[in-house]
Amino acid sequence: MAKSQKTSVGRRGFLKGAATGAAALVSTPLAEAQTQRNGGSAAADGGASAPTETQLARESGNIRPPVAVRKITRPGSDLMVQTLKELGIEYAAANPGSSFEGLQESLINYGNPPNQMPEFITALHEESAVTMAHGYAKAEGKPMLALLHGTIGIQHAAMSIYQAYYDRVPILMIAGNDPDFIAAHTAHDMAGMVRSFTKWDAEPKTLDEALVAIQRAYNEAITPPMAPTLVVLGSEIQKDNAPNSKVPAYRPPEFPVIDATRAKEIANSLLGAQNPRIAVGRLRTPEGVQRAVELAELVGACTSTTATNGPMSFPQRHPLCGPGADTNYDYTLGLEAPAAQVFIQGPALGPIASSRDTGNIGFGGINGAGLGGGRGARGGPVGTRIEADAEASLPVIINEVKRQITSDQKGRIQERAAKNAGANHEAHVTAVAQAVEAKRAGWNGTPISTARLYAELWPLIKNEDWCLSSPSNFSGGHNAQLWDHNRPYSYLGGQGAGGMGYGAPASVGAALAARARNRIVVNIQTDGDLNYAPGVLWTAVHHKLPMLTVMHNNRAWHQEYMFIEYMAGVRGRGADRAHIGSTLRDPYLDYAKMAAGYGMASEGPITEPAKLSAALKRGVASVKRGEPYLIDVLTQPR
Amino acid sequence: MNCHLKSRLQAAAILIGLLSPLMMLDAQEGARGGGGVSPKNVPAPTSPVTGNPTAGKQLYYSFGCYACHGYNGETGARAFVGRWGNLATEQSFITFLRGRANIAPIPPSTSMPNFSESSMSDKQAKDIYAYIRTFKSTAPDLKDASALNAILEAARQEKK
Prior knowledge:
The structure holds 2 protein chains of 2 kinds.
Chain A (H helix, E strand, L loop, with lengths): L10 H15 L3 H9 L15 H7 L16 H11 L4 E4 L6 H9 L9 E4 L3 H15 L4 E4 L3 H15 L4 E7 L22 E3 L4 H16 L5 E7 H5 L20 H13 L3 E5 L5 H14 L2 E3 L26 E5 L6 E4 L4 H7 L12 H4 L11 E4 L2 H15 L2 H33 L10 H12 L4 E3 L10 H4 L20 H13 L4 E7 H4 L5 H7 L4 E7 L4 H13 L20 H7 L3 E6 L5 H13 L4 E6 L4
Parallel strand pairs in A: 1-2, 1-3, 3-4, 4-6, 5-6, 7-8, 7-9, 9-10, 10-11, 12-13, 13-14, 14-16, 15-16
Helix pairs in contact in A: 4-5, 4-8, 6-7, 6-18, 10-14, 11-14, 16-23, 18-20
Chain B lengths: L2 H15 L1 H13 L21 H10 L3 H4 L20 H9 L23 H11 L13 H12 L3
Helix pairs in contact in B: 3-6, 5-6
């Protein structure tokens, strides 16, 4: 291996000298004015100095960088990428930033083949990059990487990070820090900007520390309570030669598991009960879902599911899913969901949030109420809560059930399972009959009813491996009654913190997961939400993602419109001005043209219900070819 | 903490912390038939209409009636076609408009707002009523809504 030709002049010192020299040569009236305002010193008032023209010129690529003084044969960032590869990080989404140029160069060039595992995904906004990772994690149950530019990129991403934090979603984030470059892009404590809504962060000073920190950040992100984590990497440790460093051996995290005594008790109770039930909430990964199914089948328990509210729960149409033959349950076990007797639930995020809220911001509402309990703790009967990871505890319980079960019990369980399946089928048919009866309303009306939109889409996707990636709450939630949610990723649920600008980028993230797995993604996209960062449509085209976007175009931030109407009404001022500030009219937006501008095949607006099905067919056919498609549908408001 | 501040904080908590559940309520509307209540086929009222439906159409949009009742009165949070109730007569409609609560709750609300005479004249109300009375159900028989019918048939055929 070629030796580094590092000179005796430190890089930091060299760059400072170069910048000073260059600035002296190209000193301009603007630079002088800035100096004068600062009392003759760029940072005399203690604040960060504004970028000089030289710095800005360098940032915009208008002058050459300083002459290289070292030959780098094994940059530290290659080892960072190797670390990511060994963690199985599939994608790295980023809007480019000079503070991580070393790492970006390694991502696209290091490895054989290069730019795979992780593949660089080009985002047009950091908010989009993080929300892509949000959607990906909800579909796959594991993190991808979001890369953020120092200071400015982190702040662009802040809302998305907050939302993912609220949604308990694992995301690995890396931010660059280049203290020698533009002062406005650096900070003494880069992660401090988002510390209140990240689970863990670090700013390692050496490459070896950085590699450990990346592994630790990954582990912290995937360990309950799951949440985004952030590693800040200085530009020098990305770029410096690292002839002697190596990727440390990775040690997976230890998940909190129930103890053996508890497992025996639970197994005994499930097997001894005449009519057991298992309440299943949101588990961590698809493997957890598989284990929940295994347990339910072993004991013949009917189950509840949150699959129509979000990912990673019990298959909705599994024969055991439903109220069962008898709703007088004598033992209910909760898996990340409240239950009458015992429920296993991961640790809450609240205490971590409190310890990291050094600014006393109090995110999560009064007393951190929104973050205090674990997922699913709100409402329902309260039994004994065991703080552990349900998914990691399931194998222990399953083994114990297998050990305890008798042949007599097996026969009884089989009989009970058959009864439960029959009753669940009847309950399902009744529910569907009621739903379709209700959803006839407005069927032939113009504009198109949201119920018809969901109903017409279903026959086109039901035989595909599909994922509904966008929240459906603003478009009627009709999937809950009309579609079958049988896979861990069938429906990815809500935004997390109710923040808009989520649907499209989360769908792109879900489509990243889908692309490699022969799956298609459906994004029923509210119009207000799309307008936050529509550039993500370009990302979908650029990376050839199987994402069908169907606009729920009601030409408003409709929830807010209704709020304002009410407020004006109760104040006796009428509702005829409620549209001001809450609707998207004068002019109406043309989403088909917007998509076309980003290179996406599109059509619409479609207003006639009779024309909807054919358009949807064209859209599904397109995404099955790996080409994203947008259909603008003018809909009823809800 | 004074009551006002406390109220505001409570409002903030509801807005920020509980927005998702709020949306869930919305989704549950869907579960109960969001995008339309079950069509009852209750015949439309036959009481006299004195307003101008053309003017009423414009008012139905400008007052944002469509926001909660849909463009055709069949969809949204509070569909009314087939469930005419307070719309039985012109006068019952006006009485209903004037009798809504006029106290602003702390949490945001999408309930039907009050329309005092100063904010909507009797004439305007009568025009809107005249337009509403032109609404007719567009719900087909289930056999003619092939996508819905197929969903129900698939559920029936599903393996137990």
